[in-house]
Amino acid sequence: MLKSICKLMIFILSLPLVVLILPFGILSVIEKNLTSYDFFFTIGAHVAAMVPGFLGDNVRRVYYMLPLDSFHPTAIVSYGSFLSKRGARIHANVGIGAYCIIGLAEIKKSVRIASRVSIISGLHQHGSSANITNGYAHAGVNKLVVIGEETWIGEGAIISASVGNNCIVGVGAVVTNEIPDNNMAMGNPARLLPTAQKTS
Predict the structure, then answer these.
(1) Model confidence band, residue 37 (pLDDT cutoffs 50, 70, 90)
(2) In which domain, by residue range, is 186 found?
(3) What is the pLDDT of residues 40-82, one digit of tens each?
């Protein structure tokens, strides 16, 4: 009972901040339907990222539920973190730590992401050196990176390829190749430790 009352009080206290972020959410929805730009979405994401604590968790939750393709209301995006692509999809009970940057990614249910993690939109979002002609780099390609259910991602990891279900990505790991289900990956570049499985 007391817990429910506290949650209600936090929600009520966050309402003025939610009202402040709503214009960015509405503008980013309009922008999504009429253009291919992310201007208002990006501004709103950065503003929402700066609100601390439980109040900020609610502000970010309300904001991302508007413009994203999918954002489950039980997900938490912590202080300083933001989603940089509107195509991101965040499922139930996802926890994203502080100061993370999430690109074009699908984060499946019950994933836990520590702080300072970057999930980038594939390895070729800025093109490659093979594409440079007369000093001009051709536009890159964004790739959806999928993080499987109940996977844990350690502090400071950089993820540029999909990770399977029930995996652990170690602290500071740099993932450039896909990781199959039920594996641990550590190092730079990340290497599989196939016998190390996460225990419940």
Answers:
(1) confident
(2) 74-194
(3) 888 889 988 998 888 888 889 888 988 888 999 999 999 999 9
pLDDT of residue 106: 95
**Of residues 77, 82, 80, 83, the one with CA closest to residue 58:** 77
User: What is the per-residue pLDDT across 116-147, written as a single tens digit (0 to 9) for each?
Assistant: 999 998 665 655 555 555 555 556 677 899 99
111 and 175 within one domain: yes
Shared domain for 127 and 98, answered yes or no, is yes
Whether the CB-CB separation of 21 and 57 falls below 8 Å is answered with no
Contacts of 16 by beta carbon, 8 Å cutoff, 6+ apart: none
Determine contact, residues 123/140, Cβ cutoff 8 Å.
no
pTM given for the model? 0.79
Other beta carbons less than 10 A from residue 130's beta carbon: 8
149 and 126 in a single domain? The answer is yes
Q: In whole angstroms, what is the distance from residue 111 CA to residue 40 CA?
A: 28
